[in-house]
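retry 2 of 3: previous attempt timed out while embedding nicotinamide-adenine-dinucleotide. Reduced batch size to 1 and resubmitted. Inputs unchanged:
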Amino acid sequence: MKLIDGRKVSEEIYQSLKIEVDKIKSAGGKVPHLAAVLVGNNPASQTYVNAKVKACEQVGFGSTLVKLDESISEIELLAAIQKLNDNTEIDGFIVQLPLPKQINENKVTQAILPQKDVDGFHPTNLGRMVLNLPSYLPATPFGIVKLLEAYEIDTAGKHCVVIGRSHIVGSPMSILLARNSNPGNCTVTLCHSRTQNLSHYTQQADIIIVALGKPYFLKKEMIKEGVVVIDVGISRVESSSTKSGFKLAGDADFDDIAEKCSYITPVPGGVGPMTIASLMFNTLLANRKEIYKD
Ligand code: NAD
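retry 2 succeeded.
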């Protein structure tokens, strides 16, 4: 079994981004600038946004944090987004999800200019991804593709089972791995909460991407020998071995399945660090106007 080290791969991405920033600076150009919109006081959202701002500092990007009150109206939020769309200093921005109940997330996603949508959630970017046209790829699936690439994991002709069909992870992941590209060219089965006899599919899989948000869900009797397991799940579970009384758990039962896997990502330290690294990478693409050249 080989451990897929997301921290190491993300660190390599950060190093290459730093080099790009130095080149831009010495040529007298404008360094990439990412903005993040945080609505309300959700602790998990605050943690994610802070990590994104910190990553900008680490690679030398500019960053702007727009903090808005939990009670903001949809109209006010859409106006704040319009300001970011119009601000030429900002290359790309994200609106941290989830949003308060009074706000329609779809409306917000669609209000972001596709050229600045570095999360890759806008229908234009998702549509371009499906058509294999240049687009911002959603950060978590993009990070997983980069991990498969970094570890030279053969995907062509392999059977990949994706568990979970969210718009941000499972669905785009299934499309990316089915595309005619490398990594890609998989035969993909997308499983979800209505899938019957899930083990029937997972037992045949060469690659399993597990993204359903249920800690320790994937067990050894569900997989075959030599499978590659990419664990996206992040849940906080109680633990007697940590000071805080909690630890992070993935959707795979690592201790139970690791021996049977050819490759496996740990939680934490697998997919998580890659998500932010991919967002940074997308911000560089936005700065260079690489996706939308027109
Ligand atoms: P979600 O919560 O939006 O959706 C869960 C999906 O799992 C649904 O499509 C549902 O159909 C499916 N599902 C639920 N129960 C199932 C079952 N018993 N069998 C098969 N499928 C089932 O998912 P999400 O936003 O993609 O998040 C999934 C997990 O990934 C969460 O733990 C989340 O915290 C984590 N996550 C991690 C990162 C990262 O950077 N590592 C990024 C995004 C999400």
